[in-house]
Write a structure and sequence with these properties.
Radius of gyration: 26 Å
Number of strands: 35
Oligomer: single chain
Strand content: over 45%
CATH class: Mainly Beta
Helix content: under 10%
Structural class: mainly beta
Number of domains: 1
CATH architecture: Beta Barrel
CATH superfamily: TonB-dependent receptor, beta-barrel domain
Distance between the termini: 14 Å
CATH topology: Maltoporin, Chain A
Shape: globular
Length: 752
């Protein structure tokens, strides 16, 4: 058991060497989400201590530098939920759990299709950080670039964020990676089961002199790459092949400094699943057409669209502690792309209203980030920093259409390829300054401000944003917090629509099958919001912690995203105003070999007024309705819940067994509804509520002093619930999606 705990952070080697080659060629801690709301972490003088210690060991220095780094950008006053690598490994499916499914175990996180998650009624708007360095955004698709295998711990930080957090403001997903400093060794695993799943993977890490290193890699093939558009168990045309690897290296330069390098490569190919129940009747082709719309010649099963995604990321960071000063300076770069391809243009034209779109977007981003903290006496810690991100987007689109008359009927047998290649550019930068003031030992005020600028090809906006959080700890078991934050959230550059709409309504003197019924297209703007948050965390008895947190947000130019048209690449737009509010309840308990957690969140998210990219709404009537009514945002889910438990016992010095379970609940995302007169209300109803329960078991066998064999068996959606995530209707919803049906999975892992 001791060996199992020692090796808890390293999973997978031998079999997935194969996957890495393919890529280059083409514990006993239990599942528990601890709510640490508003915890005051203090201002340890780690740097000062480390300078006075001679002949420090590698692990000691790394531990102190990690602690010093956590003091540079603390989450004082925010609401924080933490999961360790061991807790992730204790979920059903363990480290093979997709990262978005890991996030669903945190409070207020709603499930959506295509790998999306929504926190506190926001569409995406999550910022990801790796070792406190911003991970620039990628082209939003449905691949899972982040791999739980390299995670040492992950924090979800939300609420009224301190001034160091800008750019994306619904929440911060802060990942601390494995480094190899505390464990030498690795693990190889083969995982597989239902839906033709086979996933070999490996992990390996260690230290050598002043160097620490960690790497992992995996290959994943399955036949459920995108959510099934039908309630059947198996989807048609839904294979995926995914390759990913992560590399980490750091070198200790002195007892108080180090340089860190990280990089990742991710490639994923997806088939777009087919809905064989498509009932649309194709228009008859004009005489002499070289392509056929005869229903007997084309049917929905001929659709075979695909999407490929790729992401490359690299960062170099320098960290230094000098007396009361701690700082970290980082440089990073990223290349991200998504390419949507209709392989059978004839079938796509038939079943997509006469439009077939080949869309390729590539995002290039790079930037710098610098953060520092300085202890100014016993009561004040000053923090400040700067961030700049430069982004360029290349969007190449070829849309195949045919000429039509005023009634929408084809007028020519010749297909037209309309090519639109767009280049856009944006610069995001911000600076912040704040003070952590210990008013009295149990009362801390963290106040400050940041100034952000968004400058793009089409717009220039900026905003000063004050922030303030008050944290009160009347006892060791009680923490209260309340805060206010002014937010400035620019639109993701890669999702800002940039097409020339007029060409589809008048191409060579004729309208086309892609003509727009409504062509208004105001520029997408940055969102501005006032955000209020308050909560309490209480330890009731040893091992049992409960908490409650409430929030309210009032926004101007509320940002939202959706899938419009054929492509599965997001487009952004604004509501003139938005309002989001809710409350979260959390509980966690751990005693001996047992631990559990439960989260329930209630929220409501609404918007009013079509403020930008109005053509996406499709018609003037819908725009007019939204301009005069608040409607629910498409990702609004009234009640969201998650639950998990695990129990581990040790049979002997050589054997241990763990049983675990988790569950998610959703009251349903939005779909279009109708009023008493039968008129359509955008997002006026919701899909039915649902739940899904998964269970797992793992047996660990100690082979010798250095090796451990682990075998696990998991059942996903134990009750085989048929539940709908999306119905295909609603603002920015272009396809129906169902949750994963019953699945059986197993793995063998060798730890060494």
């Amino acid at each position: 058991m001791k060996q199992l705990k020692k090796r808890k952070g390293q999973d997978r080697l031998y079999w997935s060497v194969i996957s890495l080659v393919a890529l280059s060629c083409g514990g006993t801690a239990l599942a528990q989400t601890n709510a640490m709301m508003g915890t005051v972490e203090g201002t340890n003088s780690v740097a000062e201590t480390s300078t006075n210690i001679a002949n420090l060991g590698n692990m000691t220095i790394v531990g102190q530098l990690n602690q010093a780094r956590s003091q540079i950008v603390p989450n004082l006053g925010a609401t924080v939920y933490t999961m360790s690598q061991a807790q992730i490994a204790s979920l059903p499916q363990g480290s093979d759990t997709p990262f978005n499914q890991v996030l669903l175990q945190t409070p207020g996180m709603a499930q959506d299709g295509l790998g999306q998650v929504h926190l506190r009624g926001e569409h995406a708007n999550l910022q990801y950080r790796i070792n406190d360095v911003i991970l620039p955004e990628g082209i939003t698709g449905f691949g899972q670039e982040l791999d739980p295998r390299f995670v040492d711990s992950v924090q979800l930080i939300t609420g009224s964020l301190p001034a160091e957090y800008g750019y994306r403001t619904a929440g911060i997903v802060d990942i601390q990676t494995q480094s190899g400093a505390f464990e030498n060794g690795g693990q190889g695993e083969v995982y597989g089961g239902s839906y033709d799943t086979i996933e070999p993977s490996f992990e390996y890490g260690g230290s050598q002199g002043k160097w620490n290193y960690f790497m992992d890699g995996s290959y994943d093939h399955n036949a459920l790459g995108v959510e099934n558009p039908t309630p059947s168990h198996n989807a048609l045309h839904d294979d995926t092949d995914q390759y990913r690897t992560f590399l980490y290296g750091s070198r200790i330069l002195s007892d108080t400094s180090r340089v860190t390098m990280m990089g990742s490569v991710d490639y994923a190919a997806f088939q777009i699943p087919i809905d064989p129940t498509l009932a649309q009747t194709p228009q008859p082709a004009p005489s002499g057409a070289s392509w056929s719309t005869d229903p007997n010649a084309q049917n929905p099963n001929d659709l075979n669209d695909n999407q490929n995604e790729q992401n490359f990321y690299g960062v170099v960071a320098y960290q230094k502690s000098a007396g009361n000063l701690n700082f970290q300076v980082s440089g990073f770069g990223r290349n991200s792309g998504a390419h949507y391809m209709p392989d059978n243009v004839d079938a796509t034209l038939n079943y997509n209203n006469g439009v077939a779109t080949d869309e390729n977007r590539i995002l290039y981003s790079g930037g710098i980030q610098a953060d520092a903290s300085y202890e100014l006496g016993e009561k004040h810690t000053i923090r400040g920093g700067v961030m700049a991100v430069d982004e360029s987007v290349s969007a190449d689109t070829t849309t195949t259409v045919f000429p039509v008359d005023g009634n929408g009927d084809e007028t020519s047998a010749t297909l037209e390829n309309i090519v639109q290649n767009e280049e856009t550019h944006a610069l995001f930068y911000g600076v912040y300054l704040q003070d952590e003031w210990k008013i009295i030992p149990k009362l801390t005020l963290n106040y400050g401000a940041r100034f952000d600028v968004y400058s793009s090809t089409t717009d220039h906006q900026d905003q000063p944003s004050p922030r303030a959080n008050l944290i009160y700890q009347p006892t060791d078991s009680t923490t209260l917090h309340a805060g206010y934050a002014r937010y400035f959230t620019p639109p993701p550059q890669e999702t800002v629509p940039a097409s020339n709409l007029a060409v589809f309504n008048d191409y060579n003197g004729s309208p086309t099958s892609a003509q727009q019924a409504y062509t208004m297209d105001s520029p997408v703007k940055a969102e501005r919001a006032n955000y209020f948050d308050a909560g309490i965390s209480q330890k009731l008895i040893p091992g049992l912690t409960v908490g409650v947190d409430g929030y309210y947000k009032k926004a101007t130019d509320q940002l939202d995203d959706g899938f419009f048209g054929q492509s599965l690449i997001l487009s952004s737009f604004n509501y003139s105003e938005g309002r989001i509010y809710g409350v979260e309840f959390t509980a966690s308990y751990a005693h001996g070999g047992f631990s559990s957690y439960a989260n329930v969140a209630w929220s409501q998210a609404q918007g009013k007024g079509a403020a930008s990219a109005q053509f996406l709404w499709g018609d003037a009537g819908t725009v007019a309705y939204v301009n005069s009514h608040y409607i629910f945002l498409d990702h609004d889910q009234r009640v969201t819940g998650s639950f998990g438990a695990a129990y581990t016992w040790k049979e002997s010095d050589r054997y241990s067994t763990r049983l675990d379970t988790d569950a998610i609940y959703g009251s349903g995302l939005r779909q279009d509804g109708t009023d008493s007169s039968g008129n359509t209300i955008p997002n006026g109803a919701s899909v039915p509520s649902y739940f899904s329960v998964s269970v797992g078991a793992e047996q660990a066998i100690k082979l010798n002093h250095d090796m451990l064999l682990k075998a696990r068996f998991d059942v996903v959606n134990l009750t085989d619930n048929i539940y709908q995530i999306r119905s295909g209707s609603g603002v920015g919803v272009n396809a129906a999606q169902y949750g994963e049906r019953l699945g059986f999975f197993g793995s063998l892992a060798l730890v060494f």
